[in-house]
Design goal:
The protein has helices spanning 3-20, 23-26, 72-82, 116-128, 144-150, 153-160, 233-243, 282-294, 302-309, and strands at residues 64-68, 95-100, 133-137, 163-165, 172-176, 184-188, 196-200, 202-204, 248-257, 270-279, 322-326. It is α/β, with parallel strands linked by helices. α1 (3-20) packs across α8 (282-294). It starts with a helix and ends with a strand.
């Protein structure tokens, strides 16, 4: 059989799993393997930092895990377990930042923000691994305190033991992002002083890019007039993804905002998918979710191709090591 035919078949099967919720039938039989890469994080330096929070690659473990079930917290715990366990990512004494999407003054049922139960369980796991401090933060678009409160993220994160930090002007530092489009820009201080970074976006529609996923979630580290970035949105997304290389990405697809994103508002635009997609290849995760929920690929989401060209991950999600689990 021709290799391209085999990959096309795997791609179709993986997409059908998310669209039809059919993980259970094939969880034991699907797995695609490709070497990953990673390196120890370095201590950020002022002004010219390019944070790299990645951990070493583990060729015996999956790079992407797709978990489906009824309980968001259990999905988060199982996804991380399948990727090697929380201690693969978090060491005793680490300062950890968990970055949800908490941009909008919306309820969890409106699916504009990350599910609070996923955030809380991730915090618990980090503290179980011995993290010295876990901070949950985002630079919201609506009022931050209102957005964190109505989304349920503030209460859930605090109950799990995290510190919730709201953006204040005094906590931004002007940083040279050294991007192809983005140069000097104000970055929220917690994102510059962490040992590990966990990105937890929600999968939702976006009116400009077509989908808002992991790489788009990095807009929430910036202050300043972020709307200016929309003029070259794909290039700026890749500059941010190159600047922020996370320890772990967990795409919350428990509820997916299929239309009228990124702010949403109408529950009729939301599909209950009961899924988390987690892994260490942020490009593959974005590519998989975009194809599964919106039938989008790099021809529309140009940032995927640009990110792949910059060696930030694999554009061809069907070639990465993948594990499917049904709870």
């Amino acid at each position: 059989m021709h290799p391209e035919t085999t990959l096309a078949g795997r791609r179709d099967a993986m997409i059908q799993l998310l669209r039809l919720g059919g993980v259970a039938g094939v969880a034991a039989g699907l797995g695609v393997w490709l070497n990953g890469r990673g390196r120890r994080p370095t201590e950020p330096a002022a002004i010219t930092v390019r944070p790299n929070f990645q951990v070493p690659a583990a060729p015996a473990l999956p790079e992407m895990v797709v978990v489906q079930g009824d309980n968001p917290a259990r999905l988060a715990r199982r996804a991380i377990q399948e990727l090697g366990g929380i201690r693969r990512f978090i060491a005793r004494g680490d300062i950890v930042v968990v970055k949800p999407n908490a941009a909008w003054d919306r309820t969890p049922e409106q699916a504009a923000n990350t599910n609070p139960l996923v955030v809380a369980e991730t915090v618990r796991l980090c503290l179980e691994a011995g993290a010295r401090r876990v901070t949950v933060t985002d630079v919201s678009i609506n009022d931050a305190r209102s957005s964190f409160a109505r989304s349920g993220i503030a209460a859930a994160a605090r109950a799990a033991g995290a510190e919730v930090v709201f953006p204040e002007e005094r906590l931004f530092r002007e940083v040279d992002l050294r991007g192809e489009v983005l140069a000097s820009w104000p970055v929220f201080q917690p994102f510059l002083s962490a040992d590990k970074m966990i990105n937890i976006p929600i999968a939702k529609h976006h009116s400009l890019t077509g989908a808002s996923l992991g790489m788009k979630n990095w807009y929430g580290i910036l202050g300043g007039p972020r709307q200016r970035l929309h003029q070259q949105i794909h290039e700026s997304l890749v500059d941010l993804a190159d600047f922020m290389r996370p320890t772990l990405t967990i795409v919350d697809a428990f509820r997916v905002l299929l239309r009228n994103g990124p702010s949403g508002g109408n529950p009729a635009d939301v599909a209950l998918q009961k899924t988390l997609i987690a892994g260490t290849d942020p490009v593959a995760l974005d590519a998989y979710a975009a194809k599964a929920y919106w039938d989008l690929d790099w021809h529309t989401l140009r940032y995927l191709k640009l990110a792949s060209d910059r060696h930030l991950g694999s554009l061809d999600f069907e070639t990465v090591r993948t594990r499917f689990v049904a709870l």
